[in-house]
Amino acid sequence: MSRWEVVIGLETHAQLQTKSKIFSGSSIAFGAEPNVQANAVDIALPGVLPVLNREAVVCAIKFGLAVGATIAPRSIFARKNYFYPDLPKGYQISQFEIPVVAGGGLAIRVGAANDPNATATEKFVHLTRAHLEEDAGKSLHEDFHGRTGIDLNRAGTPLLEIVTEPDMRSSAEAVAYARALHSLVQWIGICDGNMQEGSFRCDANVSVRRPGEPLGTRREIKNLNSFRFMQQAIDFEVQWQINEITEGRAIRQATVLFDPDTGETRSMRSKEDAHDYRYFPDPDLLPLEIRPEWIAEVKAGLPELPQAMNARFQSEYGLSAYDASILTATRAMADFYIAAVAAAGAGNAKTVANWIMGELAARLNKNDMAVDASPISATQLAGLIQRIADNTISNNIAKKVFEALWNGEGSSADEIIEKQGLKQITDTGAIEALVDEVLAANQKSVEEFRAGKEKAFNALVGQAMKATKGKANPQQVTDLLKKKLGV
Amino acid sequence: MSDLFNSSLRQLAATLTARKISAVELATLFLDRIDRLNPGLNAFIALDRDKTLAQARAADEKLNAGAGGTALTGIPLAHKDIFCTKGWRTSCGSKMLENFVSPYDAHVVEKLAGAGMVTLGKLNMDEFAMGSSNETSHFGPVKNPWDVSRVPGGSSGGSAAAIAARLAPAATGTDTGGSIRQPAALCGLTGLKPTYGAVSRYGMIAFASSLDQAGPMAKSAEDCALLLNAMAGFDPRDSTSLERPTEDYARDLEKPLAGLRIGLPKEFFGDGMDADVRAAVDAALDEYRKLGAITVEVQLPNSGLSVPAYYVIAPAEASSNLSRFDGVRYGYRAPEYSDLAEMYSRSRAQGFGAEVKRRILIGTYVLSHGYYDAYYLKAQKIRRLIAADFQEAFKVCDVIMGPTSPSVAFAFGAKSADPVQMYLSDIYTISTNLAGLPGMSLPCGFGNNNMPVGLQIIGSWFGEAKMLNVAHQYQRVTDWHTRMPKESK
Predict the structure, then answer these.
(1) B364/A contact by beta carbon, under 8 A
(2) Are A148 and A129 in contact (CB under 8 A)?
(3) Of A139, A148, A278, A284, which to mutate for an interface test with B (greatest number of B Cβ within 10 Å)?
(4) What is the pTM of this model?
């Protein structure tokens, strides 16, 4: 493998979170009965005309700002002509020569996703462009006994097609980019990121070459709707291409599909059957003009972006780069962290980070839950951390309280501590009395210790902690025991 | 009362408002004429007496109440079959849409109905508005009421013939390269193509989106002004519709023409024009000079390129616009096919006529990879040059005049075998569409075989009121627009 360089570029279709379609007033909600969300414009009755939904443009501007791209002051909608039954007009309205967003890029971290000790490499993936277009409907090949049903609910749904430069050099980089993009579009609120429902779909252009040589011929893997499939598909495709070349066969440009059942990619159509889409400016739509004031207005409403937030977490809260990147991996995670820090106090920011990435993340993973579905709220977690910070409870007891909060045994850490009597004993007199009792009741251990058995001391600490039901500060108990035993 | 069918819209409105006749009686008068005369003309291709009379009754209620009516309430008109009309078959002259009943009204239909006008029926036309003689209609050609062996012009030939034969006092038309003005000229009527963007295209079946405009066809300029008042205006459903203050297109009708500067492009007065047409146009220009106008020569040096540029741009847009007629959701579907590709090819091969297919092929070709720059882009550049020529010309004149059509109405079959000859029928009208300008045709006499000749007036952008003023002043001192074919009396 080291003798080959893999070159990958991704095209992603992100479905935009507008209320209505890009060129008509129909709803774009998912899951409605077939064709109930298709009006005269969507089914392309004779005489109907498209009218641009400005909300879709706002989404494109947000994206352009978030990736540091140029937003075209004037871009053109073009018709991409081809016949297919779920394409009602016989053309798709898209952008061709002048897209609304050009350039920009995304910083990605590769190689350390689940391991704080691994060295992650930072990489910048350049974007070629992002353009607005409408989705097609769906062809339903089942349930019609040799016929095909057409559902036009999805026809006209706004999409932002985001195209990268061929900057990625491995499936891991491609997945890291796709994840970063997936997180970003949700972060800025332009896409719900639901891959099962097709709101976020990727096509991967893959080629291989010997390092230093010109780009190899690419094949495009269509419609990758999970990160796992993306990784599998690219890995298979890369190996396939290497084998082909090694065996003396040239790669021919083609569109391929990934079959998750076999783990293989197979050719759908070759370049020879490629359509001539006969793009030309859509005469029904005026050029899309975006003035600087509009961009400024959108910018003002944009949330703090993950890159900036990541840097701020490191400088303001002293988090490590790894911690900061985990906590800004998704908007939901960042929101949770920010809310918890706000409630717990900035002084506890690091402890909050540790608890979220430790106990909470582990528990969420185990239950396959996202952080925004966590049964423990940010405020509840902050309440727990505050009680650790002010020594009301020990770390060990805190885990018990966490457990109780997870199970809904109380509405706050304070309530659980109170109800279950978990408050740490800080009264030195009380602890001393308990220690005396333990020493009196365990003369055998005391003698063993004096005879030089170090283990016996630990047994005494254990007994003392048991006597306090874990509520004493273990360090305090140890210190007292040592004092009593004259160590 | 019996001569009401030759009355102006103002006279009809006055008669209706005075309740000397009801809207139902007036509609019936025209429906009866249609029953009697249409079989010989084939202008109407959809009629529905019940629907028409129901609309007329509603108009009568408004008129009886004495309020809520407009200048057009109760006046009948007919729609070119390119306009979607709710509950009516809307065929666009094609087998493809032979059974298509529109579930919605075009903006223009909605506006005219909103003004209280009564729909008499739907009018024949060249298939998908592609034609200059009405010979491409799936429903058979429309005959010219002045001589039924001759064409009425096209593509709004049904509209022109219906008004010429006084089967309707007014009609809607559409004009992509001359489709209102040329049939108006050939049938002796007044027709107006507005500035691009003045009238919404919503619900008007698209031929070439950047050129298509709907406009009124009637006997006189005054009638056209009243109709345009109801038709024009901003429509948010058409992105190319212009948001401008509402205007009264009749406001300047009575202004005298003293000092009016009429531009005469030398390119419009060359060899292509028949002598009989030239004589009528020259006489009309003399009439204008008598009214106090002066004529100045102007130049439109690129107008010779307008026909070739048009026959790249219009087919290119059409090839894409007509893709929706695929047999999948509505319209004609071939009865037999073995797979999807065959369903498409057979449905479209059987559903479209020869001229439509010719233009789809031309359009597909000029947009193809490798040809786009040489054809489509170059045509767009020519288009800008043509518009610039007009802009220059309007610096020295208020309106431009010339012939509408190089000849009077020709016989059936005279040009149908030679598409290029047919395309040249629109040589004087096409540049207006390419530039987005308003244009009119009004009757200015008779030529060979006693066939009507049309005078074309081209206005500057949004110069409709000026154009109408210029046309109306001429019609005050001439009576060509009141003439009608003998058989229609």
Answers:
(1) yes
(2) no
(3) A278
(4) 0.91
In this prediction, does ipTM exceed 0.90? yes
On the question of pLDDT at A253 being above 50, the answer is yes
For A30-45, b where at least 16 C-beta lie within 10 A, e where not — what string? beeeebebbbbbbbbb
Is B80 part of the annotated catalytic residue set?
yes
Identify the active-site residue in B22, B51, B80, B441.
B80
Amino acid at A197: E
Confirm or reject contact between A44 and chain B (CB < 8 A): yes
- pLDDT per residue as tens digits for the range A18-43: 999 999 999 988 888 999 999 999 99
C-alpha span between B15 and B76 (Å, rounded)? 13
Cα–Cα distance between B221 and B321 in angstroms, integer? 32
**Residue among A24, A41, A48, A151 with most chain B CBs within 10 A, to mutate:** A48
Closest CA to B184 of B205, B170, B203: B170
Buried b or exposed e, range A413-448, using 16+ CB within 10 angstroms: bbbbbeeeebebbeeeeebeebbeebbeebeebbeb
Q: Which of B94, B102, B159, B179 is catalytic?
A: B179
Burial A132-168 (b: 16+ CB within 10 A, else e): bbbbbbbeeeeeeeeeeebbbbbbbbbbbbbbbebbb
Decide if B155 is catalytic.
Answer: yes
CATH topology for B2-260+483-488? Answer: Amidase signature (AS) enzymes (3.90.1300)
Distance of CA A397 to the CA centre of its chain: 32
What φ, ψ does residue B293 adopt, rounded to 5°?
-85, 155
* Domain extents in chain B: 2-260+483-488
Catalytic residue among B155, B200, B220, B431: B155
Burial of B243 (0-12, 13-18, 19+ CB in 10 A): exposed
